[in-house]
Structure formats: C-alpha cells, structure tokens
Specification:
Order of helices and strands: EEEHHEHEEEEEEHEHEEEEEEEEHEH
Distance between the termini: 32 Å
Structural class: alpha+beta
Helix content: 10-25%
Number of strands: 20
Oligomer: single chain
Strand order of the largest sheet: 4-15-12-18-19-20-17-16
Shape: globular
Strand content: 25-35%
Length: 404
C-alpha cells in the first residue's frame, strides 16, 4: 500500500479506541494474542455518533480523495503492449463485483503519538453478506501496522479516518497537482461514488494481527462496519446485496482476486522511472528485466483482476493460513477479495480471503526469503485465507447495530 505524507506536526492523543493491541519488534517472538478480535473505533457511540459520522465523511473532498486514491507518480494507466493475461487484466464484465468492491481510503497517523506522521493511503474492500447488512472486509494492515519501529521510520501507524466507496468510478476522479490544498475542494459526487460514501465507524482486527500488526503474522484481515450520514439504508441494500463469505473453505483450488493497483514502484512488471520520479515505458527492460512489451502503468482508477491456481503459503519456514497465486497487481490492491468459484457472468463468488502482501524477490528482504521457501517464481501475491480468527472478527462486526 502506498502512503503519501501530508504534514509532520505534533499530534494529539488519537481519538480512537483500540483494545488489547500490542506488537513485537522485528524478528522478535510474537506477542501474546488478544482474547478474540480487537476493536478499532473511529466514530464515537452514543450522543456524539451522528456528529462524528458526519465529521469523518466531511474530511474527504475530491482533492483529498485524489491524493489518496491515485498513484503518486502522476502517470495515467498504460496497458502492456503484449496484452493482458490472467495475472492481471481490467474487469469489464459488470455484475455484482462492480457494486460490492470499492476503494478504501485512510488517514494514517502514528499510533503512539510520539511523532506527527500524517499520511493518506488507499486499499480495496468488499461488501459481504451479513446480519446487519453493514459489514465490509479488507486487509488489517490497511488500518493498523506496526513493525516495532517509530521515528524517523514511523512504521507504527493506525487509521484515524477511513472512507469506503463501493463501485468506485476512478475514471471520473480529477488528478490534483502537487501542492494543492487538500483541506478544501469539491464534494465527492455520484460520478465517482455512485453508491455513496461510507465512513468506517468500527472495525475488528483478528486477534493475531492485533497482537503483532505486521507481515510476520498472516491473519491480515479486518471486518468493518460502515455508515453513510446521507442514507438511512445499510450498505447491502444500497449496492444490491453483499458477496457471500466463507470460512475454512477448501484450499489449493483456483482463485479469482480483485483490486485497484496504484503503486508502480512495487509492480513487478511496472515501468522505469526517470531521475525526477516520472513513470515511463521507454523501450528498455525494467529493474526486474521485464521487457518493455510486458510493462504496464497503474493509476489506481480501475478495477483489475487475476485468476488461476492457488497454493498454501509456506512463509517464514512453516505452512501458514495465507495462500499464494500468480498476479501482476500492486499495492492499492491490498484488502481486495479472493473468490472461490467466481462467476464471470453474475460477478459473484464465495469470498474466502483478502490480498495481504506482495511476495516477490524484486523487493528483496523478507519477500526474497518467502519466495525461496515457496520455490515459486515472481510475481505472486499472498492472501489471507479465512479461518477461525477471521470468522470471529466477522461475527463480531455483523452482530452490532451501526451507531448503537
């Protein structure tokens, strides 16, 4: 996931409630797990709920949304000259997926208040069928990440505001120039958000992620409750129903995953970059020796998908609850849905996981170790497979009444 820094100033104590969240330093033993999923509350309950909900939504305008949702290098999307394949291609078939999957944008701040980190970032999230018709699922790292390092690296971050836009129409989102004032701008309209803008009011991290909020843990899933101050209906009723969700579903079977890739610098078949940071396909192989005909540029506007075989992730030298598949998606697709038995005609499938992280040797470090252990060539991506912890987070989220 790509974050863009807005300012560095001393921040007040975060106005969020995060229960039993601890983290171990890099390479250390995992911290003791919390007793069940941990809640992250972004909108206060009780008398202040409606005002808090409106405040969360009002933070976002078209300028701020553009800064968070689109790629940071300023380039518009370019398809590979050799054509798309099953590792990545635009979704053009319509159906339920175009209503239920959307853009998740976040304001990320330092969790311990020690520094003034203030970033914007973007992920992908999906409306699922739930008891309260208000649950959206994504990757936990989109809202909380902690590698045990603080200033100047600031890798202990938490979301203080998160907005979900189902059916995101990125082709209609104007790009803002560097230096644009993000505190003001036009309102987000139906041309970009055809099903409204939905504040994340409460979220439940899996207990594993709450205990150690980094990719040494594979329970990278969050279940969120969303609400729209301008619509009394739950999100499922607005988008026409959520995707069915499954737990402990058979693994090593074909998967179809979706997302809004935006970060070209960590795209395996991405472009080259000029000295000024401009993305360019210039006829030369890229840093991964991918020829120009296979290179592509992502801009974060369009919904992309991958499909193909999956296998169990043997990461950090043991089998995990995450799965792997070949994909050419990039950060921005984090949290995107992984489906079993996805039907292209209806745009519906059984949601059994979410995109967690890239696992490709081009990035070096831990990803290179993961690739070696899995004996799989780049590029591929790890997705959290839904098991007991993910089921508990979902069950908690669907049991609450928004605002109550």
């Amino acid at each position: 996931m790509r974050a863009r820094q807005l300012s560095r100033r001393r921040m007040p104590v975060l106005a969020v409630a995060l229960a039993a969240v601890t983290a171990a330093a890099v390479g250390g033993a995992p911290a003791a797990h919390a007793a069940g999923p941990a809640e992250l509350r972004l909108v206060p309950l009780g008398a202040g709920y409606e005002a808090g909900l409106q405040q969360q939504v009002d933070y976002w305008n078209l300028n701020r949304l553009s800064a968070a949702a689109l790629n940071g290098d300023g380039a518009e999307a370019v398809a590979p000259a050799a054509g798309w394949d099953d590792t990545a291609r635009p979704w053009v078939s319509g159906g339920k997926i175009t209503r239920t999957t959307g853009k998740l944008v976040m304001r990320m701040r330092n969790a311990d208040g020690a520094t003034g980190t203030d970033n914007l970032a973007a992920c992908t999230a999906t409306v699922v069928q739930s008891q309260n018709k208000s649950v959206v699922v994504s990757a936990a790292h989109c809202l909380r990440v902690n590698w045990g390092l603080n200033a100047p690296l600031d890798t202990n971050q938490i979301a203080t505001n998160a907005l979900f836009i189902p059916g995101f129409r990125g082709e209609n989102l104007p790009r803002v120039a560097p230096g644009t004032d993000l505190n003001s701008g036009p309102a987000i309209g139906p041309d970009v958000a055809p099903y409204g803008v939905w504040a994340v009011t409460r979220a439940w991290l899996t207990e594993g992620w709450a205990a150690q909020a980094n990719h040494l843990n594979n329970n990278d899933m969050v279940a969120m409750v969303v609400d729209d101050p301008d619509d009394d209906r739950p999100v499922e009723d607005v988008v026409g129903g959520g995707q069915p969700i499954g737990f402990h579903v058979a693994r090593t079977t074909p998967r179809t995953n979706f997302g809004y890739p935006a970060a070209n610098f960590k795209s395996y078949s991405g472009p080259n970059f000029t000295s000024s940071g401009t993305a360019v396909i210039d006829g030369s192989p890229n840093v991964n020796n991918v020829p120009a005909a296979q290179q592509r540029i992502y801009d974060g506007r369009g919904l992309m998908f991958s499909q193909g075989p999956s296998w169990i992730n043997r990461e950090w030298w043991w089998d995990t609850n995450s799965d792997l598949m070949k994909t050419q998606l990039s950060p921005g697709a984090s949290g995107g849905p992984w489906f079993k038995d996805f039907d292209h005609a209806s745009g519906e499938g059984l949601l059994v996981g979410v995109t967690s992280h890239l696992a490709q040797s081009s990035t070096g470090g831990l990803d290179a170790i993961a690739e070696s252990e899995n004996r799989a060539p780049s590029p591929y991506m790890a997705g959290t497979n839904f098991g007991d912890q993910e089921k508990a987070a979902f069950a908690t989220a669907q049991s609450v009444t928004p605002g109550a």
